[in-house]
Amino acid sequence: NAGVTQTPKFRVLKTGQSMTLLCAQDMNHEYMYWYRQDPGMGLRLIHYSVGEGTTAKGEVPDGYNVSRLKKQNFLLGLESAAPSQTSVYFCASSYSVLGTGNQPQHFGDGTRLSIL
Amino acid sequence: GEDVEQSLFLSVREGDSSVINCTYTDSSSTYLYWYKQEPGAGLQLLTYIFSNMDMKQDQRLTVLLNKKDKHLSLRIADTQTGDSAIYFCAESTTNNNDMRFGAGTRLTVKP
Question: Do A101 and B50 touch (CB under 8 A)?
Fold first, then answer.
C-alpha cells in the first residue's frame, strides 16, 4: 500500500547543477502537485497537473519545470539549482481537484534538498 | 495575495485540551482543512469543514468556523504525547486550483 512515493529522500547539490525529483502514486489519481516547504512559510504550490500530459504553474513556479508523461508519475526538474531552492519538496495527489471535501490530497514523505 | 495565519508554537500538558487557531483572509474560501505533519513525514489530512458549517466533531477533534471573522480553530481533547506534531491550516475555493497553507503550529505535549 505505497500511496505517494518520492525519490530521492535527500540530496545535496552544488549551485548550477541540475536534477529531477520523482513522484509516483499508485492510486490512479488524476491530480498531482509539487509543493515546497520552507521554515515559517507553510507549503507553497510550485506546479500541478490535472491529468496525464498536462501541467500548470502554481504560486512559485520560477526555476522549476515539470512533466507528467505517465499518469502515475510527476517529475520536478531543477535545470540550474540555486541556494534559494534549498527546501523540503512535497508531492501530493488527489482524485479530484485540490482533494476537495472528502477526496483529500495524499502526500509523500518529502525530499530534503540542499543547494550549496 | 490571500493569507492564512496561525501561531507558530503551542505547548500543553498531557490530558489537557489543545486549541490551535487560524485566520484567513479570502472570503470566498469554500473548504478549510487541518493537516498534521509528524517529523520526517508528509502531511496527513485530519479533518476538513465546508464553509457553510459552523462546527464539525470527529472523535477527539472539534473544528469551529466563524465565517464572519474568518477564524478557524482545531480543538484536540485529552491531548496525548502522540499528538505532538505540526498542524497546518489550509483553505481552498472551488474555482481555482490553488490551496493556501498557514505556516504551521508546532504542538508540544508535555507528560
Answer: yes
